[in-house]
Write a structure and sequence with these properties.
single chain, 464 residues, mainly alpha
């Protein structure tokens, strides 16, 4: 092996390993939410916002950052994103005022968008196209390993030291990864070669925040419905503005006309958004269900959630290798079917359900996401020109975030309507009814995604 090849492989390994830290915290925070709520007297809606605002911050800035990365230096952005994420984690650990925690969580979501977009794009730049499935599979495997160990570590840390230890431990991991990447990844910031559309980015951020605020305040008179209506109007205005920019020959955040012409890319993005409505909302629901409705400890809940993530960590790299050898559409169809089956199985859970049965539902869902994720990312990244890898990565992350935010907004809406902002531990049995309603809607959405995947599998692949 030549020195260049050795250094290149070391860099690829470091990039993949650095994907471990953020999901480690992402899943761990869900386990610590009941303890956070008890200490700071935060209600169910506020606890949902701890995760929803994180996802909203990521969703609002994924595409602007993707455009900025393609026009400037994605390597510098990747390193800055890791550093900012770690510092936000340390700051949250020092706070005791819920509104301040929510504000920093939104900012942390923005920083997560930076390395979510640039990490996959840097891998696509380094790894040849015939080997990308393996690289993306290993990267997703690292993410799922973080998702696996996050609940385990968070459960132990919460029991031993309290919820703040989750953020301190996560910050240590992220900052250690930043130090390693800084040493291995050369970068030189350059000014963007294309203008940055600040108006589109601002409009998108205000749209998402309006929708989130509308869901939270839905029971507070006319304010909630008004904010929801404003968010929907702004969403329509955003789409119209992007189409107008595209018609003028400008550089919109989303070129809807171009995207509509890329059939395979559009289908892959659509199914990713639909399937991921069931991703984090189910983790949030199961964490509260296990601790509040079934009475298990944070440690036990973390172990149960970790088993599902462990399935993803093991299967995702294998699925990535299969995507290099077989049609990825076939693998995505199998994965979507498994996620759909897990949503149906979740409808049968009640106050007497044994822990092994809950773990089986989580394992089936995790198997589905593992079989779907790597092949679908391979489809997306191989469907665009090499000059647009950051944009494709941003679109993939955007679709995933749209799904997760939609799922969490739905969950927050149902909790707001049924429980209000009362502490969720006061309503253990009413929460089960809310969870069942949420999984009913999620089953409909993921079932539709499964049918779309089956349809895509039956079509002949088009040449890029």
């Amino acid at each position: 092996m030549s020195p260049d090849s050795r250094s290149q492989r070391l860099l690829v390994f470091a990039l993949i390993a650095s994907q471990f830290g953020p999901p480690f915290m992402f899943s761990g925070v869900a386990v610590g939410l009941p303890a956070l709520g008890a200490e700071l007297e935060a209600g169910a809606v506020s606890l949902g916002l701890v995760e929803t605002l994180y996802l909203a911050g990521s969703l609002a800035f994924l595409l602007p950052i993707g455009r900025l990365a393609d026009a400037s230096d994605k390597r510098s952005l990747y390193k800055w994103g890791l550093l900012a994420f770690g510092l936000c984690s340390l700051l949250i650990a020092t706070l005791s005022w819920v509104p301040a925690i929510l504000a920093v969580r939104f900012l942390q979501g923005v920083t997560s968008a930076i390395f979510a977009v640039t990490g996959t794009a840097i891998l696509a730049d380094i790894v040849p196209a015939p080997q990308r499935g393996r690289a993306f599979g290993a990267s997703i495997g690292a993410i799922y390993t973080g998702l696996t160990l996050g609940p385990l570590a968070a459960g132990w840390l919460t029991e031993a030291f309290g919820w703040r230890a989750i953020f301190i431990g996560g910050a240590a991991l992220i900052l250690a990864g930043f130090a390693v990447i800084s040493a291995l990844l050369p970068a030189a910031w350059r000014r963007p070669t294309r203008p940055f559309d600040l108006s589109s980015a601002t409009l998108l951020a205000v749209t998402i925040l309006s929708l989130v605020a509308g869901v939270v305040t839905l029971r507070q008179g006319a304010l909630g419905p008004a904010l929801l209506a404003l968010g929907l109007l702004l969403a329509a205005a955003f789409v119209r503005w992007q189409r107008r920019l595209e018609a003028r020959g400008a550089d919109p955040l989303i070129a809807f006309g171009w995207l509509a012409a890329q059939r395979d890319l559009a289908v892959a993005l659509l199914t990713q958004a639909m399937l991921y409505t069931n991703a984090f909302s189910s983790i949030f629901l199961f964490s509260l269900y296990l601790q509040v409705s079934l009475g298990h400890s944070a440690d036990t809940s973390g172990q149960a959630l970790a088993i599902g993530s462990a399935v993803m960590a093991v299967v995702a790299p294998f699925a990535g290798r299969l995507a290099d050898r077989f049609r990825p559409q076939s693998l995505t169809a199998v994965g979507a079917g498994a996620v759909f089956g897990s949503a149906l199985a979740a409808l049968t859970l009640d106050a007497t359900t044994a822990l092994p049965r809950v773990i089986a539902v989580l394992a089936l869902q995790s198997l589905g996401f593992a079989l779907f994720s790597s092949p679908n990312v391979t489809l997306i990244m191989n469907s665009v020109d090499p000059s647009a890898t950051s944009l494709a990565s941003a679109l993939a992350a955007k679709a995933r975030s749209i799904g997760m935010v939609t799922g969490m907004l739905l969950t927050s809406l149902l909790i707001s309507l049924t429980l209000g902002d009362d502490p969720v531990e006061r309503h253990p049995f009413a929460f089960i009814g809310t969870m069942t309603t949420a999984f009913t809607v999620l089953a409909v959405v993921t079932g539709a995604a499964f049918l779309i995947c089956l349809s895509a599998r039956s079509r002949r692949p088009r040449r890029a």
